[in-house]
Structure formats: C-alpha cells, structure tokens
Amino acid sequence: MSDAALLEDAATGIFRDHYTGDLLVAAKHAGWCAGLWKVLEETGMSLVSVPEDSGGTGGSVQEALTVIRLAGKYCAAVPLADTALLAGWALARAGLPVPKGPLAFAVAGTTSPLTVKQEGGGWKLSGTLGRVPWARFARALVIVAEHEDRCVVASVDPAQYKVSPGINLAGEARDDVVMENALVSGARVRAAPPGVSVENAWQRGALSRAVMMCGALDRILEMSVQYCRQRVQFGRPLGKFQAIQQELARLAGDAAIATACAMSAAGALDSGTQEFDIAVAKVRAGEAAQSGASIAHQVHGAIGVTEEYLLHHSTLRLWSWRSEYGSEAHWSERLGRTAIEGGSTWLWNTLTRH
Amino acid sequence: MFFSDTDFSALRLPESLNSLRDEIRRFLDRERRAGSFKPHLGHGEFDVAFSRRLGERGWIGMTWPRKYGGHERTHLERFVVLEELLAAGAPVHAHWNADRQIGPGLLRWGSEEQRMRYLPAMARGECCFAIGMSEPNAGSDLASVRTHAERVPGGWKLNGQKTWTSWAHKSSAMFVLCRTSPATQNRHEGLSQLIVDLSSPGITIRPIRFLDGAHRFNDVFFDDVFVPDDMVLGEIGQGWLQVTSELALERSGPERYMNTFPLFCLLLDALKQSNDRLARISVGAIVARFASLRRMSLAIAHAFSTKADPDVNTEAALVKDIGTVFERDILEAIRTLTDTVPTRDSSDEMERLFAEATLFAPIPTIRGGTTQVLRGIIARRLEATL
C-alpha cells in the first residue's frame, strides 16, 4: 500500500467511527464533535501539512486535502481544514508558534473589516468578525488582516475576544467574534511573509470548502445509488427506472467535475496563478452542491428529509459550504470581470495555459 | 470512481507544446488574413483545400505511425491542434472523421493493405471517409441495424440503407456496419464492418436537408453492392466490438464542448464596456464550466498518451453529456446579456454565428450517443461500482 493509500485508509477509519446517527445529531446540537477532534489530535491528523519544525505533523498539502475531503464525506464537525490548512499554514509561514488544540481562522478585510493598531510593543484589534467557524472552541483565533499597506498574521488568545455563538445550516459553529481593543502581544503578531496575504488566505479558504464539498458529494452519490438499489416501488428497485438512472448519472457527473476542478486547483496552490483554478473549483463545487443535493433528495423521496436518516447531514453541509469563502456568484463575478477586462484573446491564452 | 487513474493536481500540458500552439496560431492567423475561411460553428465548413494545408503541416493523423503517413506525435499534441482549430471556427469537416475515427479504426482493425491504401492519403487531407452507422430503424439502438451482406464468391453482396451519413456525397469511401449473419439472442453477434468504395455500382446517395436547408447529411442506399473480401474491416462477426471500442476518443474531444466557443469570444468582446454584475457572473460561470470540461477532456487525452488502451469510456460519456449541454449555456447568455438577433445572412459576425448556433443546437446532444444513452452508460457504471 502506498503512503497516500495508508493515510486515506486511516483517516476513513477514524471518520467512519464517528459517522453514526447519534453522534451526528449530538454534534448538530453541540456545534461540533469533541470526541472526533480528540482522536484527530492524538493521531496528528489535526495538523497534517503543517511543517514539523512549527509543531505540525508534516506532509503535503495534497495529503491534507485527502483528509479534508474525507472529513467532508463523513460530516466531520471539527475544525480540521481551519486548523491544518488555514490557521496552521498562516502561523507556520509567519514563524509564529502553532498552539496545541483546535484553531479558528478568519480573514479580515474581505467581508469583515477590522481595525489593527500598533501600540508600544503590542497590538490592539477592534471590530466584529462575522460567522467565524468554530471560534467558541478554539485555543486561538488566527487572523490574517490588512494593516495600513501591509498584511499581518495575528494569533489571538480567546480571553481577548467575546464570542456570540451561531451555527450554519448543518449546526456547525459559526460564531461572531467581537473585539474591543483586544490586546495582542508583539510576540503573537507578525508581518505576513511572501505568499501570505488576505487574498491568498481567502483563496485557500475557498479551496478548503470546495474540497469538503467534493467529499460530501461523494457521500450523497453513494447513498443515492445504494438507496435506489434497495428501495422497491412498482415491483422494481428504483435504480431500474431509466428516469432515476438519468438523475443519478447527472449527480455523478457533477461530482466528478467538482473533484476534477478541486484537485486541479490543489495542484496550482502557491503557484502564483492559482486564483483562476480556485475560482473555477469553488464555482463548480457550488453548482454541483446545488444540483447534487436536489437530485439526492429527489431520488430518496420523503425519507431523505427525516432527522434519523443521514442524508441531511451531508446536504445541509453542502448548502452551507457553498456560501462560505465566497459563493458561486462571488467567484464567477471575479472570473467574469477578468475575462471581460482581458478580452477573448487573453481568455483563450489563460484557458490553454492551465 | 471516475478518473481514478488521473492525478488532476499534476495534469499539465508540457511546456514543450507551447511552440506547437504558437505554430498553429500563426498558421490560422495567416489563413484568416488571407481570407481563406470564414469562421463557422460545428466544425466549420467542408474544405478539402484547407484540410490539405493542415495535412502538409502534419496536423492530420498526428498520432499515427510514420509508416502510414502519420507523425507519431502524442495525443496531447493532437489535443492542442484540435482545440486551436475549433476556437478559430476553422473548416475541418473534410478530415475530421478520418482523423478521429476512421484512421484509428484502420490502425486497430484494418489489414496492412487497407492501411497502406487509405491512411497516407488521409493524413495528407486527400481522402474523405464517411461513417455508416445509423439507419431509419436503428438510431440509438445501433445493434438493430438491418443493412446486411451475404456471402458471394470473392466477397459480400450488400443491401440496405444508412441514414444521417455526414458528407457521404463528398467522400470516397465509407465504413458500413451491417449484419453478416441473422440476429440471434445476442444481438451484438453477427455484425461486421465493411469498407465500401462509394463509386461502386449499386450505391445511391440522396441528400437530407438540414433545417437550415444545407446539405451535410445523406441517405445512402446499397442495392446489391459487391464488396470484395479484402475490404472487410477486421473480422467478420466482430463489428460490434469494433464500433464500440473507439468511443472514448470520439466522445471526449474538445469538439464536444467547443462548438459555440467562438461565439462566446464575440460575446466577451461585446461586453467590454459593460458594467453589469449579472453579465460578469454569467460570463464567469461559463468560463468556469468551460475550464472544468477542458480539464476532463485533457485528462482523457492524457490517458491515451500514457496507455495504449485506457479504460475511460464512461469518463468520455461524461464529457460528451456535460459538454454538449454546456454549449447551449453560451446561447442563453447571449440572449440574456445582449440584444443579438440570430440572423443567418447578417454581415455582423455575432448575429450570423448566433443564428448558426441556434439552428445547430439540437444536434450535438443527439449525434455520437444521445444524452440519454450516455447517462444510461454512466448509471450502469454507478450500479457496478457503488
């Protein structure tokens, strides 16, 4: 077995252990799944791709995305992408210590303005960061923010901010964070190194959500095909009806496209030209989430919308994640603006360079 | 489950292909400046002289062995040439069948003599071939063909009718799928492919006018047409295997999602002064969809460049299904974002191409496997794997 296959196997085992109706409903009410997080920390998966000399477990971004996709597939209500791919990345790149424990991540400037002031040897942060994933459970909130003409990475202690709890459609913690002159010592703030910026952080966040959606699409496709094999109506399994087969094929196609784009974007990460690929990935994953969730519910009939049936844990996440780090409209508009400004020759050159 | 052998994160066209791309772009620029062709959608026009100029440059039969007039280049190089031709709306009909299906079919199943007879001429752009599959009562259900050949001394006597045969009236020969023994319980048995010289006695070719009045399709009638033994393609009885084995390349190429792309380029340039958010969003969504289809098409070309016979039939069905439906998104965007009126005889290129695309729109989701047949193929794979 290759290293990649071993990792995939191990991660699948962990996530599946926590993929039960009871645990998912409990997580929906609690805002996360503490038990699963503990296992991810113990196995080092919570910091996959964060370099070892920064306190992480090492490994490539590709490996991190493999684990994150599986987390998406099995509705893992834990800050895995946020800790490993986002907060851990920013801290390690900035040369700041990576605290043990779950981390929350926020990008200030895109949707949430934040006032950043340097005073004496420390910093003061003021403002409200809306719908920060997992903020109430975090050991630190890592913020990438604009400061004057520069960008800083700050690791803020939870004692310095107030959390007003909120949830996304799937019950995952999405909390408002209020800071009024939150004091952050100079040792916990760094000028962002090359490659870390508000824009890069936003793109990375979008990629994480695209990959999580790919996982969720894998799962709803699996559930739909299996359900249609078991469920008998008019004397035949649903899967024998051409009308149903056509719908399943569309769902499979959408999922395959989303995956092709997300994996392509993963390969372009940190290349300097990743914006295009990430925009494509987020748009296509969001579109697949929309059509895929509709199809999955349609072929399941009424059973799919009951609390005890597991489908909704995946579809509620798809509907939530497609809005996080920019909707399809947000990323399409960005693509459209550059395409229209650049014109057809520019577009063809860009498309054929990828 | 799909594309399981493809590492999309590492999938790139090698830099070394940039010079080929530049070369074909310069060629197309020169041709356009010289007025050699007017851009058309759906593979442009049938222009033997243009195909010959492509042949001279080595851009037909690119992946075939040199021995047969080919150029032993990779499927990725071929991909670059195809997408540049399609983006330009160049007239490629005269060699498209030969390059995509007939050539590979002859290489795989044909005799040495058949290959030597046809392939070098095809690669020069001088030999046009038609493909005889559909019949009046055999459309999607291809195995129900009734055209049949019976054994006669030295060969076969062919009777029946093919329909929707593109460019038969301009081709020198065609592949004909026919019954060579009566249908049994297994309908896929007893089918064979013959290579029919279209100048043979007993052949009648009648035009089927498309809804724009143009003559591209034909009915082809066979009335006691003699086909010598040396014109049997592959083996008698293996016809079904032969026609279904080349489907992956046929269904996954850029011609399955690029038919309306030249029109999209015109839309983009028409929106230059626009400050409309909806326009940016619509355009961006189309860019994203195009880019995603191209990734999948490229993945299949890549699979063919690394393996002789990759198992990507379902993936190809996906590309064709999603690509051909996508082509229509561009028409709707033009309708929503501009006041363009589809006008066939307009001097305005956008109006003219919009008319072409609107009339052509029903075709791509039918030919080469209907959307519904393709989705059936995908569903069978799901049933077998999940």
Count of helical stretches of chain B: 12
Approximate shape of chain A? globular
What is the total tally of β strands of chain B? 8
Which radius of gyration of chain A do the C-alpha atoms yield?
21 Å
Span between N and C termini of chain B?
9 Å
Question: What string gives the helices and strands of chain A in order?
Answer: HHHHHEEEEEEEEHEEHHHH
Secondary-structure element pattern of chain B, one letter each? HHHHHEEEEEEEEHHHHHHH
Strand arrangement across the biggest beta sheet of chain B: 1-4-5-8
Please state the second-level CATH architecture of the largest domain in chain A.
Answer: Beta Barrel
Q: What is the typical, i.e. mean, pLDDT of chain B?
A: 96
The amount of helix of chain B comes to 40-55%
**What oligomeric assembly is this protein in?**
heterodimer
Main sheet strand line-up of chain A:
1-4-5-8
CATH-derived topology of the largest domain in chain B: Butyryl-CoA Dehydrogenase, subunit A, domain 3
CATH C-level name of the largest domain in chain B: Mainly Alpha
If interface size is counted as residues with C-beta under 8 Å from the partner's C-beta, which chains form the largest one?
A-B, 49 and 56 residues
Brief digest:
Chain A is an alpha+beta fold and 354 residues long.
Word description of this protein:
The complex is a heterodimer of chains A (354) and B (386). Chain A is built from ten helices and ten strands. In chain A, strand 4 (140-147) and strand 5 (150-156) form a beta hairpin. In chain A, the strands form three sheets. A four-stranded mixed β-sheet of chain A has the order 1-4-5-8, covered by helices on one side. Chain A has a four-stranded antiparallel β-sheet with strand order 2-3-7-6, with no helix packed on it. Chain A folds into two domains: 3-191, Butyryl-CoA Dehydrogenase, subunit A, domain 2 (Beta Barrel); 198-353, Butyryl-CoA Dehydrogenase, subunit A, domain 3 (Up-down Bundle). Chain A starts with a helix and ends with a helix. Chain A is globular, with a radius of gyration of 21 Å. The mean pLDDT of chain A is 96. Chain A is of the alpha+beta class and 354 residues long. With 386 residues, chain B is α+β, with helices and mostly antiparallel strands. Chain B has three domains: 13-127, Butyryl-Coa Dehydrogenase, subunit A, domain 1; 131-238, Butyryl-CoA Dehydrogenase, subunit A, domain 2 (Beta Barrel), CATH 2.40.110.10; 246-385, Butyryl-CoA Dehydrogenase, subunit A, domain 3 (Up-down Bundle), CATH 1.20.140.10. Chain B is globular, with a radius of gyration of 21 Å. In chain B, the strands form two sheets. A four-stranded mixed β-sheet of chain B has the order 1-4-5-8. Chain B has helices at residues 18-33, 48-56, 75-87, 93-109, 112-123, 239-244, 247-252, 261-270, 277-306, 313-337, 349-360, 371-385; strands spanning 129-132, 148-152, 155-162, 173-179, 191-197, 203-209, 215-228, 232-233. The mean pLDDT of chain B is 96.
